[in-house]
Amino acid sequence: MSAHDQMRAMLDQLMGTGRNGETSRYQVQFNDPKVCKSFLLYCCPHDILASTRMDIGECPKIHDNALRADFEKAQQKFDHYYDVDATEHLQAFISDCDRRTEAARKRLLETQEELTAEVAEKANAVHELAEKIGQTLAKAEELGAQGLVDESLKLMGEIEDLRKKKSEAEDTYRNSMPVSSYQQQKLRVCDVCSAYLGIHDNDRRLADHFGGKLHLGFIKIREKLSELEKNYEERHEARRKFDEQERYKRDDKRSHRSRSGDRNERHRRSRSRSRHSRHRSRSRSRSRTHKHDRRDRDRRRH
C-alpha cells in the first residue's frame, strides 16, 4: 500500500464517508446487509487470519474503514445490536475450527502408535511443559521488544526452571518406552489454532508458534467470542423486541398510507360523481331550454 493509500485509509477511519463531501466507494451505508458486521467490530476472521497458514481469503461482505467510522458515530446515538450478528458469525467460525481440530486428533490416533494410558500421561506432561516454555518465551520476547527489560528477564528466569522440569519429564517418558518408539515424532494438536506440535520441537519452534500471527489471531477471535457471549442471550432478546417494534411501526405506516390512499380514492370518486352529476344537471337544463325554445318557435310559426 502506498503512502497515499495509507493516508486515505487513516482519514476514512477517522472521518467516515462524509469527509470532503465524499460517499462510500461501494455506494452503500454501514447498515446495508452487504456490509460485514464483524468487520465493524474489529473481529472478522478474514482480516485477523490474513497471510497465515489458515488464510480463508477475502470476506464476501464489504470491508471499508469509512463505513466503520460512520457506524461508530451512529452507535453513540443509537444501538444497532451488531454484536449479535458478530457473535453468531464467530460462533459458526469457531465451531467449524473445533470440528477440524477434533478430526485432526482422530487422524493422529489412527496413524500414530497407540500408547498405554500411563505412557500417554507422561507424554502429555512433556507436551504441556514444552508449550508453557514456548508461550513464556514468546511473551518474554514481546516484553523485550516493548522495552520492558526487567519483566522480560524475570520471565527468562521462569523459563530456565521450566526447562529443568521438562528435562526431567522427558527422562521419565523416555524410560517408560522402547528407544525405537521414543524416536518417533509424537504429535499433538494445538487446542487454540489446531496446528500440529511435536514432542521433540525445540523452544525456538514453539516460541514461533505461540507468538505467531496464526496462534495469536485465534486467541483474539476466541477471546472476542467469549466476551460477546457473556451478554448474547440478553442482547439477542433485546434486538428481537426492537425488531418487533420496528416491524409494528412499518406496518402502521403502511396501514396509514393505505387508509390515506383509500380516503383519497373515495374523495376522487366523490368529486368525479359530483362533476358527473353537475354535468348531467346542466345537460338536462340545456335540453329543457332547447325544448322550450323550439316550442316557442313553432307557436310563432303558426
Q: Which regions have little confidence, pLDDT < 50, spanning 5+ residues?
A: none
Rg, rounded, reads: 38 Å
SSE pattern, N- to C-terminal:
HHHHHHHHEEHHH
Percent of sequence in beta strands: under 5%
Q: Would you report the number of β strands?
A: 2
Main beta sheet: 2 strands, antiparallel
Number of helices: 11
What class do helices, strands and sheet pairing give? mainly alpha
> Tell me, what's the shape?
elongated
Q: Please give the oligomerization state of what you see.
A: single chain
**CA(first)-CA(last) distance:** 109 Å
How much helicity do the residues have?
over 70%
Side-by-side strand order of the widest sheet: 1-2
Query: Please, what is the average pLDDT?
Result: 82
Folded structure, characterized:
- The chain has 302 residues and is mostly helical.
- It has a two-stranded antiparallel ribbon with strand order 1-2.
- A hairpin with a 6-residue loop joins strand 1 and strand 2.
- The radius of gyration is 38 Å and the shape is elongated.
